[in-house]
């Protein structure tokens, strides 16, 4: 049943019409050149199983100068990592894409589904900056529909922005830099009525009270969920991002990606890390407890005007003079993020929750500030 995302009779709502049919494959979403693409076939793609002698990929047969042997190309499809993620996430391996951070997944979505100079996507500022950067790199218009003052989706504005060339809508939830989760019903309304892809970026989902959209993959063929091991899992230096989507979308992403986009060291170390779920859960609980303490401490300062509710491992703090506070902290070797020039974040600093010792250092340093 076609839904009206604006809850009124606006003609713009017809842009979200589902045309009384389920999502019909990739249809006109996929770029013609990608549909006809013959992907690069790597040496490791051309046989299954294990071999005793590898003379196919022009590698150095004598090994590497490291204690670990990295002279062989990595598994191009990262099957061992995907199998472990399947056990943790409850998602079949065929519905998982792994990339060099979530940024690679975002870029591949643009290159697969958006014709440069023709198509457009919708982003909802304030939000993660790489959506705009990837759009610019790929010569794709990014139509901005600002969040409401309470940092939720402007559904009427999104409906008005959509046209026949709108291929994707990017939603970060919990949102960066505001920290709040996006209303789930609004996202589901978009998924049910928009004929393009809805990308839900869940980089901070481990810290959230909201449940992941991964469990909705079987309900919405146009859903793409992005997650990362850079945040709660503490593996930012390894650069492993995840995309969860329909088998069709994952197949396209695998065809477009470089043949060996996730290196062997990352795959091995990630597999080791993924055996430690309990440790990560413990860190998440500690982070949330520290977040609550940090909020209470920050409220004591006269220059703090507001602290927005957060479902992430950071908080957005509205201040009387973000630039001066930022500069003072930098002068003491403490780095936070000045977001005061971002839409709807005027006067705001984004502060990551640190260790107990780091948080105390932050508070003690703020006590020394004099804004005159």
From TrEMBL:
<dbReference type="InterPro" id="IPR005861">
    <property type="entry name" value="HisP_aminotrans"/>
</dbReference>
<comment type="pathway">
    <text>Lipid metabolism.</text>
</comment>
<feature type="region of interest" description="Disordered">
    <location>
        <begin position="1"/>
        <end position="22"/>
    </location>
</feature>
<dbReference type="GO" id="GO:0030170">
    <property type="term" value="F:pyridoxal phosphate binding"/>
</dbReference>
<dbReference type="InterPro" id="IPR001917">
    <property type="entry name" value="Aminotrans_II_pyridoxalP_BS"/>
</dbReference>
<dbReference type="InterPro" id="IPR004839">
    <property type="entry name" value="Aminotransferase_I/II_large"/>
</dbReference>
<dbReference type="GO" id="GO:0004400">
    <property type="term" value="F:histidinol-phosphate transaminase activity"/>
</dbReference>
<keyword id="KW-0368">Histidine biosynthesis</keyword>
<dbReference type="InterPro" id="IPR015424">
    <property type="entry name" value="PyrdxlP-dep_Trfase"/>
</dbReference>
<dbReference type="Pfam" id="PF00155">
    <property type="entry name" value="Aminotran_1_2"/>
</dbReference>
<keyword id="KW-0663">Pyridoxal phosphate</keyword>
<keyword id="KW-0808">Transferase</keyword>
<dbReference type="GO" id="GO:0000105">
    <property type="term" value="P:L-histidine biosynthetic process"/>
</dbReference>
<feature type="modified residue" description="N6-(pyridoxal phosphate)lysine">
    <location>
        <position position="231"/>
    </location>
</feature>
<protein>
    <recommendedName>
        <fullName>Histidinol-phosphate aminotransferase</fullName>
        <ecNumber>2.6.1.9</ecNumber>
    </recommendedName>
</protein>
<feature type="domain" description="Aminotransferase class I/classII large">
    <location>
        <begin position="67"/>
        <end position="362"/>
    </location>
</feature>
<feature type="compositionally biased region" description="Low complexity">
    <location>
        <begin position="1"/>
        <end position="21"/>
    </location>
</feature>
<comment type="pathway">
    <text>Amino-acid biosynthesis; L-histidine biosynthesis; L-histidine from 5-phospho-alpha-D-ribose 1-diphosphate: step 7/9.</text>
</comment>
<comment type="subunit">
    <text>Homodimer.</text>
</comment>
<dbReference type="InterPro" id="IPR015421">
    <property type="entry name" value="PyrdxlP-dep_Trfase_major"/>
</dbReference>
<keyword id="KW-0028">Amino-acid biosynthesis</keyword>
<dbReference type="InterPro" id="IPR015422">
    <property type="entry name" value="PyrdxlP-dep_Trfase_small"/>
</dbReference>
<keyword id="KW-0032">Aminotransferase</keyword>
<comment type="similarity">
    <text>Belongs to the class-II pyridoxal-phosphate-dependent aminotransferase family. Histidinol-phosphate aminotransferase subfamily.</text>
</comment>
């Amino acid at each position: 049943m076609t839904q009206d995302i604006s809850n009124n009779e606006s003609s713009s709502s017809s842009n979200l019409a589902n045309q009384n049919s389920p999502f019909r494959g990739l249809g006109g979403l996929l770029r013609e050149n990608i549909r006809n693409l013959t992907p690069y076939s790597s040496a490791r793609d051309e046989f299954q199983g294990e071999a005793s002698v590898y003379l196919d990929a022009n590698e150095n047969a004598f090994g590497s100068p490291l204690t670990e042997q990295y002279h062989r190309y990595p598994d191009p499809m990262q099957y061992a990592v995907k199998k472990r993620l399947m056990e943790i996430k409850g998602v079949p391996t065929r519905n998982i894409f792994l990339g060099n951070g979530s940024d690679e997944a975002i870029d591949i979505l643009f290159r697969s589904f958006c014709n440069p100079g023709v198509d457009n996507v919708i982003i909802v500022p304030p939000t993660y900056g790489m959506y705009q950067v990837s759009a610019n790199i790929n010569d794709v218009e990014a139509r901005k529909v600002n969040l409401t003052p309470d940092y939720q989706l402007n559904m009427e504005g999104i409906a008005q922005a959509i046209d026949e060339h709108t291929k994707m809508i990017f939603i970060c939830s919990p949102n960066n830099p505001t920290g709040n989760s996006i209303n789930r019903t609004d996202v589901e309304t978009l998924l049910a009525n928009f004929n393009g892809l809805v990308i839900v970026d869940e980089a901070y989902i481990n810290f959230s009270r909201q449940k992941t959209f991964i469990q909705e993959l079987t309900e919405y063929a146009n859903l793409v969920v992005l997650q990362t091991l850079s945040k709660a899992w503490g593996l930012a230096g390894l650069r492993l991002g995840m995309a969860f989507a329909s088998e069709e979308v994952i197949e396209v992403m695998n065809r477009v990606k470089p043949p060996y986009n996730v290196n062997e060291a990352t795959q091995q170390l990630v597999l080791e890390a993924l055996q430690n779920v309990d440790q990560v859960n413990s860190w998440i609980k500690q982070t949330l407890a520290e977040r609550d303490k940090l909020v209470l401490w920050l409220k004591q300062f006269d220059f703090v005007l507001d602290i927005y509710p957060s479902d992430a491992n950071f908080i957005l703090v509205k201040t009387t003079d973000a630039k001066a506070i930022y500069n003072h902290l930098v002068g003491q070797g403490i780095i936070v993020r000045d977001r005061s020039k971002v839409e709807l974040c005027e006067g705001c600093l984004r502060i990551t929750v640190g260790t107990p010792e780091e948080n105390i250092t932050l508070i003690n340093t703020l006590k020394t500030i004099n804004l005159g």
